[in-house]
């Protein structure tokens, strides 16, 4: 069966059982049952309790739940309560972030007008849009929203803004002509689409598709099928957590076996093994990452980037490809006059000279033959016409005074068949007809030309120059209008025959210009190793011109149209995308395929956009970025991040923030793992050497919950540095635990272990196992607090105290541990003996030694890396 745009009106009426008098109520009910309701259906959503329970699926969390259960069974209820408190807090944090439900489908519903005018039983009625059915005849005029997809049957200068669907900023002129062959959505000029709205004229159409079968409905379906991606950090943490947990469980099992062989009580040995597992597994890591990301969102919100999904903060740091919509994202979404052509010369808009008679007349006539207005910044009318009057205002001409001075006598409105608009004005006592329209139509209707020397008969040479200039403008992606006039117009009304024998005045070229900051943002993206790509529903020539101007496009062979990828398989497209920087005339399906192709090549893809047509690709992308001012609610709801200033350059700042957040999270992981490794080495050494265990289970829980968490969070809040933008995006498959990173953790853990066991030996030799354990506990606690300064982003004295959060964490931790070590009231609870001043001084000195020793080794490693050029 032929598509609706390929069918005649008679064929459509027959297929949908429609008539010129509209449907009867009975026929409407039959069509509703046959073709469905005019509603966007929702997908099934998860309940809050389901989201909460899903937080416990993590491998680390499952191990901890098992540990809590065993601890409770063996009578260690303190450990059970502590473990369950930690994992419950983590689950609550995760639920709060996830429960911000998606509202994309609800926003799509809002795009439909609440009521529409239809012909039912031969009468015009207003009915709710939900009651519209396929076959209904709907009547629309300027200002109306289109409630369903349909085929136009009548029109009078009908223009419809379809930018939310197609991405094109210029309203589409509609007609009733049958289209042949496959035609892109943007070129289906005999169709109307749900969610668009009428900017000019009036018309009527037969409803061909309703609800989920409309183009908006198809996008809703794509939103359901588009899958959200885990960020590299999430994937890394998942893999890391599983591997680390297995290693720790193996180690704890070995330690348990050693303890039993040495004759220790099985219950106590098991409790200690569990306590060690709890201490070694960084169960607070997920919470710490969530908190760090939350602080990242606050910082980014101050810089005009609102994060809707926490993981997007870190994911931005990995972005290697940005697929950007053109209209409203890279451009201003506002038609602007770029050039004049009059008196045989091209004049840039900023160089227009109103003392030149030809240029002044061209400006005046473009204001007069024009129905648009701009009152106090509120623009009404066709964007092309508002661009003309905005230029006048910019040049100091009062639009209202110009129109009052030269009043309109009559008008023949624009018609898409004639491609002309004419109006007659009284100018200096003479009625002058001004005509504006398409160059290819106007060129055949002119017989004279206005020059600085007066009016002359037009020659073939003149026409060739006009057409050549029009061709140049078109190649640059500019939209061109021709203006002509006729003096001494004496008829009361204008007829089409009057639009001949005209005097050519000039050409006006305009475009939706790039944002001022777009070129700089594109350059910064390239320097940061990010490939910017333009994906738009606009024409290839226009898109290429914009892309060339802002630096996305270098060679014009890097641009293609959506239909060129229709016949490519996914594998062929994967190879094809590498050489393309601009995609024009694309559909929502094309956008998703392009994003997927880059993802399949191992890239982290960000997609920016503002229209309904962008929503599925925004959701499919690793990071979806919507525009907050010009963006539709649908695009905002599908996105991970919303730019409140609609400034493309804000995304570059967001990438910088994302990279800093990832770097800081790595420092938190370094701090947690190196400290945990130091504790594990100390226990392992004591077990192998046949020494009493240096820590009680409660010591490990104290360290894990109090002295670890605060510095780890503080390191996640390290001051940001622009230096991160000198690096290339990290590979999607890069593991957090690289060889060098593991080596660093191992070295730092070993040094902490040596200092801890030194404290243990000093106490053990002086006062036995109890004093040794207390001094080991104190040394490890304070060592880890001081170790926070080793894990900072930048080394050196001047950077040592630039993080107020880390200083606060250190001081708070010191108060807590010194209180436990010196106040007898805590002795039984924490299984320590009170220490005197000498002992406190000893463990503090041992802990402080970690700082210069680790910094020395870091200096040696850094020097070696600089020498080898790594």
Brief characterization of the structure:
The chain is of the alpha+beta class and 870 residues long.
Tell me what the structure shows.
By secondary structure, the protein is an alpha+beta fold. It is built from 34 helices and 26 strands. Helix 24 links the parallel strand 24 and strand 25. Helix 4 packs antiparallel against helix 5, helix 9 packs parallel to helix 26 and helix 10 runs parallel beside helix 27. It starts with 8 loop residues before the first helix and ends with a helix. About 2% of the residues have low confidence.
Question: If you compute it from the alpha carbons, what radius of gyration comes out, rounded to the nearest whole angstrom?
Answer: 36 Å
Q: What is the number of E strands?
A: 26
Residues in helix, %? 40-55%
Instruction: Identify low-pLDDT runs.
Output: 100-113
If you average the pLDDT, what whole number results? Answer: 85
Oligomerization status of the protein chains: single chain
Distance between the termini: 63 Å
């Amino acid at each position: 069966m032929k598509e609706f745009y390929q069918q005649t009106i008679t064929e459509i009426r027959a297929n949908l059982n429609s008539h010129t008098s509209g449907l009867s109520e009975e026929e409407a009910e039959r069509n509703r049952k046959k073709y469905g309701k005019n509603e966007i259906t929702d997908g099934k959503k998860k309940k809050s309790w389901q989201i909460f329970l899903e937080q416990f699926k993590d491998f680390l969390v499952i191990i901890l739940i098992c540990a809590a259960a065993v601890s409770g069974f063996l009578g260690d209820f303190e450990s059970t309560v502590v473990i369950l408190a930690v994992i419950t807090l983590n689950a609550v944090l995760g639920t709060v972030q996830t429960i911000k439900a998606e509202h994309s489908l609800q926003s799509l519903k809002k795009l439909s007008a609440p009521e529409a005018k239809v012909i039912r039983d031969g009468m015009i009625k207003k009915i709710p849009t939900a009651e519209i059915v396929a076959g209904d005849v709907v009547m629309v005029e300027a200002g109306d929203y289109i409630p369903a997809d349909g085929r136009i049957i009548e029109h009078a200068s009908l223009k419809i803004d379809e930018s939310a669907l197609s991405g094109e900023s210029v309203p589409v002129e509609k007609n009733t002509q049958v289209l042949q062959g496959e035609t892109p959505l943007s070129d289906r000029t005999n169709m109307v689409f749900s969610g668009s709205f009428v900017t000019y004229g009036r018309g009527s159409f037969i409803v061909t598709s309703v609800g989920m079968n409309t183009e908006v409905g198809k996008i809703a379906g794509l939103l359901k099928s588009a899958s959200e991606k885990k960020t590299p950090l999430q994937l890394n943490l998942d893999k890391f957590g599983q591997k680390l947990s297995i290693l720790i469980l193996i180690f704890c099992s070995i330690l348990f076996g050693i303890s039993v062989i040495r004759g220790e009580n099985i219950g106590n040995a098991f409790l200690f093994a569990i306590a060690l597992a709890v201490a070694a597994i960084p169960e607070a890591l997920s919470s710490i990452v969530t908190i760090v990301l939350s602080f990242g969102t606050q910082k980014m919100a101050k810089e005009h980037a609102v994060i809707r999904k926490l993981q997007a903060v870190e994911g931005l740091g990995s972005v290697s490809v940005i697929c950007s919509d053109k209209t409203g994202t890279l451009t201003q979404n506002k038609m602007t006059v770029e050039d004049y052509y009059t008196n045989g010369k091209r004049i840039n808009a900023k160089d227009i000279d109103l003392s030149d008679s030809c240029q002044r007349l061209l400006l005046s006539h473009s204001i007069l033959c024009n129905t648009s207005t701009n009152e106090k910044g509120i623009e009404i009318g066709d964007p092309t016409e508002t661009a003309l009057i905005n230029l006048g205002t910019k040049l100091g001409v009062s639009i209202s005074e110009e129109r009052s001075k030269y009043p309109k006598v009559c008008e023949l409105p624009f018609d898409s068949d004639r491609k002309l608009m004419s109006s007659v004005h009284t100018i200096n006592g003479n009625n002058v007809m001004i005509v504006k329209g398409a160059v290819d139509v106007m060129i055949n209707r002119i017989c004279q030309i206005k020059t600085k020397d007066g009016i002359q008969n037009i020659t073939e040479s003149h026409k060739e120059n006009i057409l050549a200039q029009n061709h140049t403008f078109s190649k640059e992606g500019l939209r061109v209008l021709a203006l002509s006039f006729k003096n001494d117009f004496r008829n009361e009304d204008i007829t089409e025959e009057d639009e001949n024998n005209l005097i050519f005045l000039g050409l006006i070229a305009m475009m939706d210009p790039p944002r001022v900051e777009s070129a700089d943002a594109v350059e910064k993206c390239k320097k940061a190793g990010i490939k910017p790509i333009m994906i738009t529903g606009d024409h290839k020539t226009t898109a290429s011109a914009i892309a060339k101007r802002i630096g996305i496009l270098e060679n014009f062979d890097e641009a293609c149209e959506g239909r060129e990828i229709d016949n490519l398989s996914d594998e062929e497209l994967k190879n094809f995308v590498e050489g393309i920087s601009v995609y024009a005339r694309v559909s929502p399906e094309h956008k998703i395929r392009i994003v997927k192709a880059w993802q399949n090549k191992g890239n982290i893809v960000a997609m920016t956009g503002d229209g309904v047509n962008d929503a599925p690709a925004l959701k499919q992308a690793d990071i979806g970025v919507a525009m907050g001012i010009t963006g539709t609610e649908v695009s905002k709801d599908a996105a991970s991040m919303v730019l409140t200033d609609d400034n493309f350059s804000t995304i570059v700042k967001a990438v910088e923030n994302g990279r800093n957040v990832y770097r800081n999270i790595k420092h938190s992981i370094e701090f947690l793992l190196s400290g945990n490794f130091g504790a594990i080495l100390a226990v392992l050494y004591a077990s192998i050497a046949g020494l009493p265990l240096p820590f009680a289970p409660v010591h490990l829980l104290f360290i894990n919950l109090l002295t670890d968490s605060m510095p780890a969070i503080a390191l996640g809040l390290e001051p940001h540095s622009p230096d991160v933008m000198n690096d290339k995006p990290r590979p999607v498959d890069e593991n957090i635990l690289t060889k060098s990173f593991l080596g660093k953790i191992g070295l730092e853990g070993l040094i902490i272990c040596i200092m801890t066991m030194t404290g243990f030996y000093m106490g053990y030799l002086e006062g036995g196992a109890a004093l040794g354990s207390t001094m080991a506990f104190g040394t490890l606690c304070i060592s880890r607090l001081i170790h926070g300064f080793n894990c900072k982003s930048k080394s050196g004295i001047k950077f040592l105290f630039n993080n107020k959060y880390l200083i606060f964490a250190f001081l708070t931790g010191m108060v807590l541990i010194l209180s436990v070590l010196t106040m007898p009231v805590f002795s039984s609870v924490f299984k320590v003996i009170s220490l005197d001043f000498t002992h406190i001084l000893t463990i503090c000195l041992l802990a402080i030694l970690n700082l210069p020793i680790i910094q020395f080794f870091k200096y040696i490693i850094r020097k070696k890396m600089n020498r080898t050029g790594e």
